[in-house]
Task: structure prediction
Amino acid sequence: MIRWRLRSLVIVAVLLIGRDLTAQTPRDEQFYYPGSFNWLFLRNYPQAARLFNAFDYGHAVLYERLWSEPEASPELLEVKEFDYITGDLLRRPPRLAVAEEAIAPGYSRLAWRAKLAFDWAHMLHRQIYDAYADERLSPPARDSLIERLTNYYLSRQRTAFVAVPKSMELMDGQYYSGAFREKYPRFNGLIWAYHWLQVGLYDALISGGTPAAKQAAVNAALDRFWDMLRDPPAHLPSVMPMTAAIAPEFSRRHPRAAVIFDNLHMLHDIISDILVSPKIPRTRKQAEIYEALGRFQDASSDVLPMEHWWMMGEMMGLEKMGGPAVGPFPPPASEPSVEPHQHRRP
Result:
């Protein structure tokens, strides 16, 4: 009875939120690129695929707490939510995708366009996993499919992140930059661990020549993810994981998708900073979020040259990003030759 009531409440909440949001912002939804490869990652690698449902909850509850309870003690996220997510939710992740607007109704009303942009990029993530999970595809056919998926993603211009690298100044050079990392270091590291796994799995899947080898590589990447959660924040990433560093082979084959994911992950951090920063009045939060979103949907401004994007992983230090998803860990690097605030957790 309790479970039935909870499910009913969630359904009602989603319907009410959707009605409210539809009155404010057009909901021009677009579904998966069609194909028999869809949902094969969940079938073949459920231990990894279900984690992403838990990640969706983690992102949603973070934004909801930051927006709806701005005066709450940092312990609400740093201890209570962090311990629940790492000790319970990630250990027993949901079987189905989480309706994030039911977890974060206040934030969804505030920034519906940003939520749609995140959802659309997450869909690209998952369809690429599905392409790698389809053993019927030859490597050339798989690469071709991933490029078609990227084209399909970019065709929704009002929602897609552009496929050009963006300057780190967007994340680290604004007047509100670093507010979230300073106040919530453990939760920030957890978000970066999510992003490490999301891109690292691509190289894990590429590295396996057989289904058994792929499964072993995915399991190894998952083991490294769990290692990050030991004694937090000691083993969590201390700089933002970048796709070219964590998944270099995937980035070489599909640089547009790799850049899209870095832009996605940068905006995640930027919105956290905007919601936390006391320098931004509450009445300005939405405008700042949409201004930041607009920059990541504009291919003509704040552009980082591709060669600089490739170099950034080496400059920041792979081991600080969580290390590689496959293969041995590199020896500790010398201090990066970039400004110390860039991508770093205090």
About this structure: The chain is about 65% helix and 0% strand. The CA atoms of residues 228 and 235 lie 5 Å apart.
